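Below is a filled-in request sheet from our internal design queue. Each sheet records the structural input a requester submitted and the sequence that came back. We keep these sheets so that new team members can see what a complete request looks like end to end.

REQUESTER: design group, bay 2
PRIORITY: normal
MODE: inverse folding
CHAIN LENGTH: 374
BACKBONE (tokenized):
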């Protein structure tokens, strides 16, 4: 059935279909309709949605719910992400599966609350202490707000880590025709949770290889579960042993970085003989697609890589797309944050950063003109 939905509506539908049964959030433009949508929907499926007193309480409740075995979601915008920062670190340290939707708006600080931007891209990856990795996905359309929300829950469960959906106002509050029934039918059922056997001793952070992920035993279940924000060993006992700390840090890093290719989602549209590659993501990818179509119609050759996974950086996909390429164009609604990531992989190729941070969308004309595509 064709529906006319906003991206935020699709996030709600994707979360419900992924099995999310707990939501906590605080009203903030342009993410508030996720809060209100979850509050309307949760009673119908036996779930719980809470409007909290602030963002800190919201993510704290979600961490608590996730550790009791619920699939939990919270949603906010830039200022709320700042308040989430400490608890994101807690979720990384405690290996807590959690989905966070950041419907970005123009910053910094209060900024332009009703205008879109992609200014939080690096903050989502690096905005908590320790520098340890998490997963950041970026929807381009309303349909992808649905599919990538479902993906986010699966990845959070698989890797026991916070997953951030890097939406923004122009995606979250845009209405489009979308067939969620078709998307739902094409999508596999929610991934079953790995649960520790009840008849065996439970080690909450056990691993043989550094990239292993231990099954979760919910608090309140058959095991005594220790959970701490402080440095700990595999049993969650506090430790100051440098060797144990190094081993745990290596585990928290490698369980994500060693599986970057598995986590990578992207669309690659190569053009044989092209010497220019456009790399984009999110709403700017829509302008990039139109720009590439215009250049090809005019007889030019240009390839296109649209990233759905921003972090861990899909290095293999980017390097493969760079084969035969002399110049890379990266359009985005910030001051060139992801262009820096591409530059690190460009091996001396020219990288042109096409940016806007004036509350207006990057247009196809911007991509063509500033990218030198024609």
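RETURNED SEQUENCE:
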């Amino acid at each position: 059935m064709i529906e006319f939905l906003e991206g935020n509506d699709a996030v709600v539908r994707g979360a419900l279909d992924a099995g999310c049964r707990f939501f906590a959030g605080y009203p903030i433009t342009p993410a508030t309709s996720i809060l209100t949508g979850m509050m309307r929907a949760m009673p119908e499926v036996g779930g719980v949605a809470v409007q909290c007193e602030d963002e800190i309480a919201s993510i704290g409740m979600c961490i608590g719910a996730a550790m009791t075995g619920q699939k939990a979601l919270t949603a906010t915008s830039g200022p709320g992400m700042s308040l989430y920062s400490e608890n994101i670190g807690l979720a990384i340290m405690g290996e807590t599966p959690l989905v966070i939707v950041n419907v970005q708006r123009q910053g910094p600080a209060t900024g332009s609350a009703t205008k879109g931007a992609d200014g939080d891209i690096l903050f989502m990856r690096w905005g908590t202490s320790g520098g340890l990795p998490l997963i950041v996905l970026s929807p381009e359309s309303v349909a992808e707000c649905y599919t990538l929300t479902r993906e986010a829950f699966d990845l959070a469960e698989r890797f026991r880590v916070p997953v951030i959906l890097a939406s923004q106002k122009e995606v979250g509050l845009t209405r489009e025709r979308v067939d969620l029934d078709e998307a739902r039918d094409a999508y596999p059922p929610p991934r079953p949770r790995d649960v520790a056997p009840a008849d065996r001793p439970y080690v909450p952070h056990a691993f043989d290889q550094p990239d292993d992920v231990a099954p979760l035993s919910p608090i309140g279940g058959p095991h005594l579960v220790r959970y701490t924000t402080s440095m700990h060993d595999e049993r969650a006992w506090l430790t100051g042993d440098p060797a144990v700390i190094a081993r745990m840090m290596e585990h928290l890093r490698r369980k994500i970085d060693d599986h970057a290719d598995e986590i990578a989602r992207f669309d690659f549209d190569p053009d044989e003989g092209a010497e220019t590659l456009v790399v984009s993501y999110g709403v700017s990818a829509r302008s990039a697609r139109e720009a590439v179509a215009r250049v090809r119609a005019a007889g030019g050759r240009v390839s296109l890589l649209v990233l759905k996974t921003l972090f861990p950086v899909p290095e293999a996909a980017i390097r493969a797309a760079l084969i035969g390429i002399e110049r890379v164009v990266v359009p985005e609604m910030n001051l060139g944050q992801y262009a820096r990531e591409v530059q690190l992989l460009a091996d001396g190729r020219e990288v042109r950063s096409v940016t806007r941070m004036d509350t207006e969308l990057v247009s196809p004309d911007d991509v063509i003109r500033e990218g030198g595509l024609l």
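SHEET NOTES:
- The longest strand covers residues 98-104.
- The chain has a mean pLDDT of 96.
FILED BY: M.R.
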